[in-house]
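Worked example 4.2. Below are the chains of a multi-component assembly; read each line carefully before continuing.
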Amino acid sequence: MTKTMRALLGATALSILAGHAAAETVTIATVNNGDMVRMQGLAADFAEKHPDIELEWVILEENVLRQRVTQDIATGGGQFDIVTIGQYEAPIWAAQGWLEPLNDMPEGFEPDDLMPAIVSSLTVDGNLYAAPFYGESAMVMYRTDLAEAAGVTIPAEPTWTDIMTAAEAMTDRDAGIYGICLRGKAGWGENMAFLTAMANSYGARWFNMDWEPELTSPEWTAAVNDYLSMMENYGPPGASSNGFNENLALFQQGKCGIWIDATVAASFVTDPANSTVAEHVGYAVFPHKEGVENHGNWLWAWSLAIPSSSDAKDAARTFITWATGSGYIALVAEKEGWRAAPPGTRKSLYANDAYRAAAPFADMTLSAMEAATPATPSVQETPYGGGQFVAIPEFQGIGSAVGQEISAALAGQKTGEEALEAAQEFAEEEMEAAGY
Amino acid sequence: MARAISTRSKITFTAVAWLIGLLIFFPILWTMLTSFKTEAQAIADPPVVFGFDWTLENYCTVGFRPNLYFFDFNEFCEGAPRSEYMRFLWNSVAIAVGSTLLGIVIAVPAAWAMAFVPGRRTKDILLWMLSTKMLPAVGVLYPINLIFVEADLLDTHFGLIVVMTLINLPIIVWMLYTYFREIPGEILEAARMDGAGMGQEIFYVLAPMAVPGIASTILLNIILAWNEAFWTLNLTTFDAAPLTQFIAGYSSPEGNFFAKLSAASTAAIAPILVLGWFSQKQLVRGLTFGAVK
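Applying the procedure described above to all two chains together yields the following structure tokens:
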């Protein structure tokens, strides 16, 4: 071999090695929610601090993301180093050994500052498996101007009767104003998230201690019948296809008197650039049935986790620390103001006067989240945890099928009782087939 | 003698044809209009049709900033875009063109054999090939995913090109078979008599005569591969991710970003719309070939 050839080969080998050492790539799978978009926009700050880590963003629609990530982790594809998941996936996936525990995190992660309710729902056997990026509960958002004009008040802790009375008073169909807007689109994370929380607040439970479905119980029947009657009498037309975004659009356009949904909606409806009613939004705790001490127990945190198939775990830990630490919240505040800070994950944010002044919904979000007890979703004893969902793998299928039944009832194709009976039958079959 | 058609019915038919055309085009038109609105105008009720403040902000955000010489998008954009449109575009072009060409190379000899030297089972084979299109794609998602993991093909152009070729192969073979059947076999026989081998017969005699058919097959398959969303979303991550993933990235579970989603959709279909516009004559000819005899 000639000297030149040797030199060339050596140089090639060196450059390959140097290329490997120069940058480690972290592939992040996430959704297109406002807070995630902001994180991507601010990632230049991370790149500046960690020039040795290169970030690749894979942004997908929520259901596609869930399916894609499940498929990748289950088959050991190793395509992702960080995935965006929630309370539903974290315990199930952790139990499968699909996720890396986040124990030895770099400095700046400050786990003690995280909100306890969120941490406990992302922890399995004492190990935290996902770091919360932003958290949410559910609450009542209503038009203060419409309530005043109609002569009704919504108390800070309303009952469902209060909500129905106010919705009736605010409804003015001729003016295109509907007293109440609720989710109607079928899906375990769509209408069933709302209805599970509503059923919780009526004292209902999905399963008894023997894992037998209880969808035809008096509590479930009362909750579903009230839901259907509210939507029929005071709701917008075509509600069976309305999800979070459709209701958000209706509320922002001034078409809804009351909207009960995720707390993260508050920052959208009070944004004067996109909302025509930004100045007139009032808040209240998620309603409860008279005599039932339960406010739905809705709790969700979009969280970042590391799949065990990742080959860049340390770099992924470094990024998660940057994205979920209090330093990131300060960075958002500096660049875009306190109102834009990712809510619902850190205690220190709610102790910050600047944030509380900028975000009028801060106190209500905090109390809604603190009131949620996902380990005990109902006032009755349950064999499962959760909140607006049941934390078992079968729930995706069962929840979606039940959601379709109730959506059909909302569209007027059947009564509430018929829908629940069909749902009960389906749930019984599925649970039996799953070996419960 | 041709039957005279009255002016009145001509006007009626033209009007109905325009109406149907507009109805079919309306969703695309609405998407395009929405892409120039602000997010608040995009969800306005009653909807704003034309009377809004046109903005290029959404295109700037999604990274569609072409310089058209007479009009440069960059002049209206500030800050960095949220996604790299050109990376997705290149991947779409590579996958769509690559899989179509590979498909043609395999399908031309196959269609030749079926059209000119049919066996007893040719009809069955043709039907069986088509039946693979009736299988729900999700049914083979996990096996294919596992093969991709084992063969290290996830998120590669090569892997996607192979899968897309296999998916569209039945249609390519069927289309070419239909065109080849229109060509008199005697011409090929004459070539054989003159001493042409099988390869020469296909490349020098059959292919030149079938150019219009091959061209419309290529065009239609590029469009099919361009729009394919199931496999491209499931088997790519970053390096080979095409425009379907670019659009999927702008759908949001919490927050209304319809204007940006519309801009992303318009940017994703723009190249294929332009291609379709310039080649519509061939496309229409290809799609209606043999329909009326």
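Take a moment to check your reading of the output against the notes. Chain A touches chain B through 42 residues (CB under 8 Å). The domain at 138-298+374-433 of chain A is CATH 3.40.190.10 (D-Maltodextrin-Binding Protein; domain 2).
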